[in-house]
Amino acid sequence: MSKRINLPGTGAISQGYAPLDAPIKEHTVSGGGIREKQPIELGDLANDEFFDEVARIRDGTRTLDESITVLQTKQALSLQSPSDPLANELASLSAKLSSEVSSYRSRISNLSDRVGKDEARRGHWENLKAALGRAVERWQRVERDHREKVRDKISRQMKIVNPAVSEQEIKAAVDTTSSSSGPAANQIFAQALVGGSRTAAARSALDEAQTRRSELLRIEETLTELAALMQQVADLVVVQDIKVLHLEQTSHEIEADVEKGAEQLGVARVSAAAARHKRKLCAGVVLALAVVIVIVVIVQVKQSQTT
User: Fold this and answer.
1) Taking a C-beta distance cutoff of 8 angstroms, is the pair 155, 170 a contact?
2) What pLDDT digit, counting tens, does each position of 63-77 carry?
3) SS3 for 3?
4) Structural domain boundaries in the chain
5) Does domain 47-236 have CATH number 1.20.58.70?
6) pTM of the complete model beyond 0.90
7) Any idea what the Cα angle at residue 245 is, between residues 239 and 248, rounded to 5°?
């Protein structure tokens, strides 16, 4: 015997409501509950591969966020206790994140041709794009914050080795945009190495500074790559939108051609009117000459008759 929904607070079985063991696709949702008849199609939500892929990508972007948190934690640890294994782990994690972002970007792009005019699909697709964009933006912020902390660490090490170091020298040492900034930092530490009692500290500081500088270079490379990834995510569009943009562009071109044609037609009309006016003038001149000739002939004839 089929079970029926018992509305809370009524103590009675509702009439007209669907049995609990009836298929979901035979139900419809109203303000009072799930009623029989008037079926709703849940094929897209329950069986459609599009929504399956949406769910997988959504879960993947959440995993991205978790990985970024792990990266941030390990970056903080590297500031306190730098080591080659930890540096390799950071590089590996960054490479994995980059690969996953590129993969999800491609998968979201592949979904675009299956959106069509379905507003529900478009909404899910836009949400995926926004989620991936937020993940990349967060990764960018994490890398920028870490870059500033590494620069500050190098600055402190330089001041420990040489308290008289100038801000200009520090800036040159942490500047990764100039090919001469690396030798500048090494020179400052090398000068401290001959300082007698400060030799050991300077040597240790130099080693760490060189390690930090390599880390800065890696961060700059990552930020450059992230900027490219962010642009690729921003450039994602639905295939339907590409068609619309193409149609709009075509319509603009047609409109421009029509306007150009109308302009040329106007010029042609003016030219035709001018030609007609010239023809009328020529006809008038010819007619006037003919009249003059006729008059001259008549006058000569009369004169000859009188003589």
Assistant:
1) yes
2) 999 999 999 999 999
3) coil
4) 1-40, 47-236
5) yes
6) no
7) 145
